Structures are given as C-alpha cells and as structure tokens.
Amino acid sequence: MTIEEKHSSILDYCRKNKIFYLKADIQIPDQVYNEAAKLLEDGLFFDHRSGDGRGWASSTLHGKAIDVTHYDITHKPDYHWTRAAEYAPSMVQWMKEEFPNNGKYGRCRFMLLKPGGFIRAHTDTHKYTPGMDLKSDLFGAVNICITQPSNCYLRSVETKEEVPFKPTDVFWFDNGPFHEAANFSRENRFHFIIHGGSNKARKQLFIDSFEKVHGII
Hints:
CATH architecture: Sandwich
Shape: globular
Distance between the termini: 12 Å
CATH class: Mainly Beta
Largest sheet: 10 strands, antiparallel
Number of helices: 4
Order of helices and strands: HEHEEEHEEEEEEH
Structural class: alpha+beta
C-alpha cells in the first residue's frame, strides 16, 4: 500500500469512528512561548471573529497580513510571512525545517484566548447552513499548544471530548463537527493553528502518529 493509499484509508477510518483528534509525533520549541508573549506585549494580537465569542484574538504569521485573521480565498495568492516573523524566528524555523511541508503554507496564526474568554459552538464547514452535512477531515487543521492553563478546553460539542493539550504538543483535530473552547483561568492561553503546506512527508508523519496511538488498521 502506498503512502497516499494508507493515508486515505486512515482518514476513512477516522471519519467512520468519529475520531476528533490525533497527537502528532513531533513538538515545537519551548521558546515559541516567549515569541507569542512578545507579540502580545507589543499589541500585535487582533480581535478574531468577535461574533463567535469573547476574548479571542489572533496574530497572523503566514497570510495576507499580521492583522488579517479571517479566511478569504481571494487573499491566498498574496500569502507570505508577515511582520510577525520578526518576532517568531523559532516558530518560522520549525515550520520551514522541522514540520514537514511543501513550502506553500496557507493561513498560519498565533491564537490567543484571554482569561475568561470563550468561543461558542461552531463548525469550520465552509459556508455551513443548518441541515447540511458537516465536513469531516482530521488532516485539515493543525492545532499547536503553546500554553494550556488549568480550566481550559477545546472540545466536541456532541461528545464533550476534549483535546488533551500540553505545552509544545502538536495535534491534528477535526474542525468540521461543532466544537467550542473556553479559558476559565486567569492566564492567557496561546495556541498556534496551521493550514496548508502538506506533502508526502507530513502524510507519513500522520500515518506514524496514528499507528503509535491506535495501532495498525
């Protein structure tokens, strides 16, 4: 079985079994926390989707611009490393040299959930309207934990299953089903989200990570 066939087979298994997350067998450098904190200190986090919650902000590292946090397909041809790259050399180096990629990342952002902040139940299914089928793609979004204070969660709305984040951990998670997040602590919660840039090596990392957790199917 080729890498492509095995990757597709595992994704089918994950859809059928409603697997919400998968821990990747890779981690980010500890110093990424200092980079995120400096961006916040210098006022370079910007409100993100305020209608979906409270205390949610973002700083775009790769995209249209540091303060353009939303998705717009017309922006994709203009994506580049933004001003945030000056603050985040460790994260940029990891994305270029450690995390498997094809050199064509999509939107990649530092994400902040402030103390007392929350994100209401939502789906990332494109142009969702009530009654339509939700997308299911465990491989689509990468959510990286920079900090995870106590009393924080990202969870499935249906099952209340939480992603078991710990600092520097890297997860794939299925953002198609309805999910929600909250920070009931007194500390900032920093995460990082990667879209795009997949290649054969990343698919192999996904396969190896899946088999490490779930075994060979």
